[in-house]
Amino acid sequence: MSTRSDLLASAEILLRTRGYAAFSYADLAEEIGIKKASIHHHFPTKESLAIAIVESYLFRFKSQLECINVQNTDIIDRLKAFAMMFAKSSESALLPLCGALAAELLALPESLKQLTKDFFETHLNWLQINIVKGQEAGELKAELDSVKVARLILNTLEGGSFVSWALNDNYEQLSGFDFILDGLRVAGTRH
């Protein structure tokens, strides 16, 4: 891997474990084993580094969503795969990136505030599209408001990540999601 890739990977972990305000180039230099000046060569400012992290993560995230759509024709399976992304982050002791950024929204530069909003909208748009498809396919209850259901799912998964993080426990993070999913399904479509 290149120094730039190493910096992005390590900085992403710091961002998802310490938060934007709580990590510095000194932390990153120590983590990678290079001088701070070398970091500034690749990323002149902390803001430029954070933007590169979010853009890289968002690209990977959108690719994951596309893979979920391709690999799962069943909407329930798509929603479960989406939820598993949160569970895997939690198992790796990492906060969801968009949640970690949102927790510090007031401390973020405007560019990162907008990227954080865009990131959440990516989640919600994907969920809404799939909820509507699930309703059209008869998998999910037709009377449900797809916008509200998408928010409920995202709120549950993001919130579950933060609760697991705070309690540092082995609680089954997806239990709240499973409960919601049970309420969304049309009777007789259990998996």
Descriptive account of the structure:
With 191 residues, the chain is mainly alpha-helical. It has a single domain, classed as Orthogonal Bundle (Tetracycline Repressor, domain 2), CATH 1.10.357.10. It is 73% helix and 0% strand. It has 9 helices and no strands. The chain has helices spanning 3-17, 25-32, 36-42, 46-71, 75-91, 97-103, 110-136, 146-167, 175-184. The N and C termini lie far apart (41 Å).
General form? elongated
The low-confidence runs, each spanning 5 or more residues with pLDDT under 50, are none
Considering DSSP H and I runs of 4 or more, what fraction of the residues is helical? over 70%
Number of contiguous helices? 9
Mean model confidence by pLDDT: 91
The CATH class is Mainly Alpha
Please identify, by name, the CATH architecture. Answer: Orthogonal Bundle
Q: How would a textbook summarize the main sheet? A: none
CATH domain topology: Tetracycline Repressor, domain 2
Q: Care to count the β-strands?
A: 0
Termini separation comes to: 41 Å
Helices and strands, in order, run as HHHHHHHHH
How many separate structural domains? 1
Approximately what portion of the residues adopt beta-strand conformation?
under 5%
Going by CATH, the homologous superfamily would be: Tetracycline Repressor, domain 2
Category by helix and strand content: mainly alpha
- The radius of gyration computed from the alpha-carbon positions, rounded to a whole number of angstroms, is 18 Å
